[in-house]
């Protein structure tokens, strides 16, 4: 059974996505559903528990963590993340962590700019050596990653329900256009094929009118068939010619 941590390192909680696939995982959800708070409308859909939860919680034993290639993502200028089915879970965590780091660093940079740009605060800024020594440009450079492209490929439409709330959350937080997300449903004929023309037309109209994709139920529009990887790689290289991807 896939058990995947989807919370970011900076989060003050631990979130785990578990796919129900048999009696054991169905019973696991039942036990936690009775103990945890039910998801709020418009939230991620996760069952939640904290110090305010009144009922007794099941005892958990967590072994790990173990190393993974995803831990080194900060060494790259641009991220190209490809997830297949439930295998997308580590990348959800990366996207959330990347956004939080960029927002935090830009807020720090703006704070430095406010101090250094205000002549009336010259006396006060002299008492803030830690802020004055670090320029906004240098603060931004401490995080190498500037952009991320996430491609989620799955065969089953129901798979999009796993991360519907999380993907909407990422899209809402990404006010700077740092992350570009793409969903691909391989069980439908590719766009341009007459056999998928009707659903493509309805999908485009609904997304243009309501901003919601009818396939995934999120603001991220779903493409059909498999990605054209040659085109994806070529486009990414052209856009970020001198970057480490």
UniProtKB/TrEMBL annotation:
GO terms for molecular function: oxidoreductase activity. It holds the Pfam family NAD_binding_6. Residues 1-70 form the FAD-binding domain. Keywords: FAD, Flavoprotein, Oxidoreductase. GO terms for cellular component: membrane. PANTHER family: NADPH OXIDASE, SUPEROXIDE-GENERATING NADPH OXIDASE HEAVY CHAIN SUBUNIT A. This is NADPH oxidase.
């Amino acid at each position: 059974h896939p058990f995947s941590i989807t919370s970011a390192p900076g989060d003050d909680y631990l979130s785990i996505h578990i796919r129900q696939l048999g009696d054991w995982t169905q019973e696991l959800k039942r036990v936690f559903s009775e103990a945890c708070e039910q998801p709020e409308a418009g939230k991620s859909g996760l069952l939640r528990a904290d110090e305010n939860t009144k009922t007794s919680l099941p005892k958990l034993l967590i072994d790990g963590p173990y190393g993974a290639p995803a831990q080194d993502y900060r060494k790259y200028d641009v991220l190209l993340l490809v997830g297949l089915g439930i295998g997308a879970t580590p990348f959800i965590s990366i996207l959330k962590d990347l956004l939080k780091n960029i927002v935090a660093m830009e807020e720090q940079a703006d704070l430095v700019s406010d101090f250094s740009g205000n002549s009336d605060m010259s006396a006060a800024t002299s008492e803030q050596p830690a802020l004055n020594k670090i320029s906004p440009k240098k603060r931004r450079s401490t995080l190498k990653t500037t952009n991320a492209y996430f491609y989620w490929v799955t065969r089953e439409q129901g798979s999009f329900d796993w991360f519907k709330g999380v993907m909407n959350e990422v899209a809402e937080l990404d006010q700077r256009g740092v992350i570009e997300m793409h969903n691909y449903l391989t069980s439908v004929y590719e766009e341009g094929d007459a056999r998928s023309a009707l659903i493509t037309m309805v999908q485009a109209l609904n997304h243009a009118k309501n901003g919601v994709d009818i396939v995934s139920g999120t603001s991220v529009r779903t493409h059909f068939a498999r990605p054209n990887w040659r085109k994806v790689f070529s486009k990414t290289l052209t856009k970020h010619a001198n970057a480490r991807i």
